[in-house]
Design a protein that fits this description.
Shape: globular
GO molecular function: adenosylmethionine-8-amino-7-oxononanoate transaminase activity
Order of helices and strands: HEEEHHHEHEHEHEEEHEEEHHHEEHEEH
Largest sheet: 7 strands, mixed
Distance between the termini: 52 Å
Structural class: alpha/beta
Bound molecules: 4'-deoxy-4'-aminopyridoxal-5'-phosphate
Modified residues (N6-(pyridoxal phosphate)lysine): 282
Pathway: Cofactor biosynthesis; biotin biosynthesis; 7,8-diaminononanoate from 8-amino-7-oxononanoate (SAM route): step 1/1
Strand order of the largest sheet: 4-12-11-10-7-5-6
Radius of gyration: 22 Å
Binding site for substrate: 59, 152, 282, 315, 399
Cofactor: pyridoxal 5'-phosphate
Amino acid sequence: MTDYKHVSAEQWLEWDRNHIWHPYSSVHSPVTPFAVSSAKGVRLTLADGREVIDGMASWWSAIHGYNHPALNEAAKSQLEAMSHVMFGGLTHQPAATLGKRLVDMTPASLTRVFIADSGSVAVEVAIKMALQYWIGRGRSDKHRLLALRNGYHGDTFATMAICDPVNGMHHLFNKVLPQHLFADAPATPFGETASDQDMASITRLIEQHHHELAAVVLEPIVQGAGGMRFYSADYLRRVRALCDQYDVLLIADEIATGFGRSGKLFACEHAGIEPDILCVGKALTGGYLSLAATLCSEELAATICSGEAGAFMHGPTFMGNPLACAIANASLDVLLSSDWQSQVAAIEQGLRSGLAPAREIPGVADVRCLGAIGVIELQQPVNMATIQPRFVDHGVWLRPFGKLVYTMPPYTISPDDLALLCAKTIAVLSEEHAQHG
Ligand code: PMP
């Protein structure tokens, strides 16, 4: 009989190789994951004893770094009370408090919170809310969505259908996905006024299709996994105006940008606009547990539950998980009692100066920063199998994809660690260029 408890690292790594699916991976891939044994502050300790500075905040989520005393304490005390109970017919203080806090920190019109268990589900819920809202208003013909090219909203079926259908990672499924509409991605960079040319595609689509459009869905200001691009706040403002003019809902997917990452608490604030439906996730629990939420207005909620529908039919088993909600409440305490705006602004400055030398490396197409996000775009895609071990050898944890080498570190990173992270990133890219041209 296999002894599962006393197992060498070699043995469990073999089990991992033989049986485990990793994100976005092929079983034929030559890229072997690094074994990590612990994480504290902004550092991950690998099973072989090496330490790396985390430049990824575990995909935008670990904003306070790892092993945070306040979050640990919240988890421990909630565990003593209860780790989970079903949310159907029961409620508890961690969920109710989280709901109130989310309502208090988001635009005033958003008063109803659906607590979901992942970002993709939060976006699915937003889509269902939008469709059911129009059914409630007797307009079931408004059943299509309009998303942006280069957009990314998740890996489940409804969310795959609003990811970029050409360059996105889900095009294999195009034939079986609902057919939505896609506007050209905004090309006007952040900080500039959107040109009429930039508005042309989305304006034309809304004008032509508003009678069948339930909602526009977009990632405000930062298009993440679809290209790490920062676009014009003016574009977002004008899309909001178009939605108002043509009676189309606006769904803001702030799963990645929420809770300060772009320099504002929510990226919509850059444009001074309020979405009709807002999705948050990732950093909600400071990266401790999977939790997300979808917020909408009282008017939307009332219409959704009116007429034949009567109720909103969605209820994940782990909805409102008390442990995750308690940690989320602690994470919001830590965030809102800190000077996060100065921290993020300092990180933006540190990234701007630290990554600037990358512009001198041949093969670098662009370097851009916004809030606590730094992006180096290359002319050619990186080879993950060779570049990832190099980053680790230099003591940093980054996970590039395609032509993008990017970082979104925990907000707690020190100026020295940030400078090191940038210097090592540039050292690796210079080495890569020297070796492979
Ligand atoms: N929307 C956006 C903008 C995201 O970046 C992501 C995750 N990368 C999702 C939705 C999906 O979230 P999750 O991975 O938690 O399902």
